């Protein structure tokens, strides 16, 4: 049996791999190369299980370490580089050895489905003088230059809404070319490969580690239909459905870039690290650049929500805050919060959302998480103060703080050039001064003592583990005619539902005073308050696990309070425990789960910080709004803080 000429043309001069599908991914069984004008290598490899060609032998001679490396690469599928490095070292495989292989995969490598971005039948144009892969190269150029390719297909496109230069700049040799939707591939030639049951030639695009990042990489595979798992008729669909299990494919993304974010690097980071991954995954992308503070709120308030399922903020935490509030101020906010997921591509200096939700602060890995994540609902916190409450209260997704941390966060803006380090410097400075911030605090507890908090945490964490916190189930329910989205499986879960206008209604409006069942925190503590910090996400910065017990939708926020009178010798272990999250276990630290609070400052000069934004020094009342916001959580949960084992 020989290879069809068109298929040979398509892979002429390229490496290809013979492969088979397994439960975990695509197993490479051997490697080949089709020389110009000859397809004998392909035939030899295809028909021989113990191939004896020279090129194969030379590959096999290196197999011992490569097989180890293969296993490692399989295990590390979504980890970032630090993790990869550690595992490779543990397996005694040096990066140099990996590099020597020129990126070739050895037999027995498993490409995990979690790493596969796209799959398509490999096809050739009818014009042999311009073989398919050259066309792909052209396509790639067009995509990276930001040209609108959306005439026939929404997929894999890129439109600049503003700025327009779309200078995908630093892509160097990154391979971003989706074949599907390319008009030069006729239907006839696609059928040619698809219907060839003996030789289904498939091109996959996978996310491949390169230096500290991941980049899209295309591979040609000759797939053995006698695979280890049952294959339905369409092998490409089989690969795609396993690569995107319960995950929405081909997202329509509005990327909002803060050009000043991340010390002015946000645009470059997005273009070079995130965009190639998103395009290779066949997402359609529109881009908007913020021109002033508050612009992202205006964009989110007025955008056409029918066009997007995702708003990705290529920024720090300031832009997601603005976007959530823009959606909240829409007349059709119910539809907006049911339609659009808000996520972050970490291109700012404070990237707590990405660290908590995507488990990484690396923009390329976060982009992979974006396309591979489960849509989930997270709680928001609604903040009311007299000066703005009447128009719109403010939604907070991350934190509110008063005292030492608020001043360190905001008052160190003038040393913005320092990046994240300025925050730590500010905290240390204020703590050492033992500055106090007197106030009254009233709270409605969900779990008051540390013991009750642990019980609450374990109950909700286990519930999340079993429910998978999976918003896609809601979409499936709705498609199946179950309009309230209550689902068939885990009934009663707050996440398995669509939000309604009732979900925006405050239980504790500011004007109604402090309810009877709220407790006042001991004034001897609050008159000497050092840190007041409430949060919904575990990380407030890449290496600061301030809220290790935070959960996406437990209907509560975490409260941390310290007393400014705590001796510096005791504060030192508290601050040094911030990276591990062990500070909350220290006896001097108050740590509770609460559903609402009111803080009344007793000083005249200070501020609040809400999600890193400066808020006025007025009484602040906050309550939780359960499961209001759709976002993308890797594996449906926040990064594991190991709170249960601290
Ligand atoms: N064009 C602009 N000019 C001035 N300010 C802007 C502009 N675009 C956005 N901003 C503001 O910049 C602030 C910080 O944005 P972002 O969080 O993306 O950046 P960052 O680098 O992480 O900064 P931070 O360290 O404050 O978190 C936001 O509050 C936003 O309102």
Radius of gyration: 27 Å
Q: In CATH terms, what is the fold-level topology of the largest domain?
A: Tumour Suppressor Smad4
Helicity, as a percent range: 25-40%
Q: How does the overall form come out from the CA principal axes?
A: elongated
Percent strand equals: 15-25%
Low-confidence stretches: 36-101, 124-156, 159-191, 412-418, 468-495
Please explain how this structure is put together.
Strand 20 and strand 21 form a beta hairpin. This protein folds into 3 domains: 175 residues, no CATH class; 164 residues, Probable inorganic polyphosphate/atp-NAD kinase, domain 1 (Rossmann fold, 3-Layer(aba) Sandwich), CATH 3.40.50.10330; 184 residues, Tumour Suppressor Smad4, CATH 2.60.200.40. It is built from 23 helices and 22 strands. Helix 11 runs parallel beside helix 16, helix 12 packs parallel to helix 13 and helix 18 packs across helix 19. The protein is an alpha+beta fold and 646 residues long. Bound molecules: adenosine-5'-triphosphate. Adenosine-5'-triphosphate binds next to helix 10 and helix 13. It is an enzyme of class 2 (transferase). It catalyses: sphinganine + ATP = sphinganine 1-phosphate + ADP + H(+); a sphingoid base + ATP = a sphingoid 1-phosphate + ADP + H(+); (4R)-hydroxysphinganine + ATP = (4R)-hydroxysphinganine 1-phosphate + ADP + H(+).
